Amino acid sequence: MHIIVGLGNPGSQYEGTRHNMGFDVIDRLIETYRIPQAGTKFHSIYGIGMIEGEKCLLAKPLTYMNLSGTAVREICTFYHTDPETDLVVISDDIDTEPGHIRIRKKGSAGGQNGLKHIIAQLGTQNFTRIRVGTGAKPEGWDLADWVLARFSKEDRKIVDGAIDRAAKAVGVMVKDGVDLAMNRYNG
Predict the structure, then answer these.
(1) For residue 131, what are the CA distances in angstroms to 25, 34, 42, 78, 149?
(2) Which of 57, 69, 73, 108 yields a CA-CA distance of 20 to 30 A from 120?
(3) Taking the chain (187 residues) in consecutive chunks of 10 residues, what is each chunk's mean pLDDT?
(4) Which domain holds residue 39?
(5) Distances in Å between the alpha carbon of 54 and those of 15, 83, 128, 164, 177?
(6) Which is catalytic among the residues 19, 43, 100, 117?
(7) What number of CA atoms fall less than 13 Å from residue 92's CA on the CB side?
(8) Is 43 annotated in the active site?
(9) How many structural domains does the chain have?
(10) What are the Cα distances from residue 55, in Å, to 66, 91, 114, 141, 171?
(11) CATH code: domain of residue 135
(12) Which pTM was predicted?
């Protein structure tokens, strides 16, 4: 079973913010593939369904961004999944322009605290991640204020396109592999 985890912060005050790109992609996958919600478990809201003929668990951790690894570790442990082959984590990325996505099979957290906690909890950097670009923080802005802010109307349209591409990339990953998704959707 594939484990697809979108990072973000729970609560209506965080909806539509830069930090909730992972939640937004999970919501798009739920809508596209009609994934039923299974409930709340593993410190997450989760659902299990089929994406491109493959069984997948979709989760949105309720731990807040910086403690996302707790939820991911619990899910992987419970289902006896190998993070290196069965896990996809979706997050925001301030180092990538709005509208762009980056898919990687492994790597560092790149300053993203949710990814940093997942790496610490799993003991490996070798898991697939999709990073949805939100753009660099402007000079004079506090980083926390930037990632918790909402997009301008123009940027929101651009980011919605990236959310669609990230969801399509997940479909390609589970059916045909990460390499094809990287070739098709990176950039």
Answers:
(1) 10, 23, 23, 25, 18
(2) 57
(3) 97 92 97 95 97 97 96 97 95 91 92 94 96 90 89 91 97 96 91
(4) 2-185
(5) 29, 17, 17, 19, 12
(6) 19
(7) 30
(8) no
(9) 1
(10) 28, 22, 25, 42, 11
(11) 3.40.50.1470
(12) 0.94
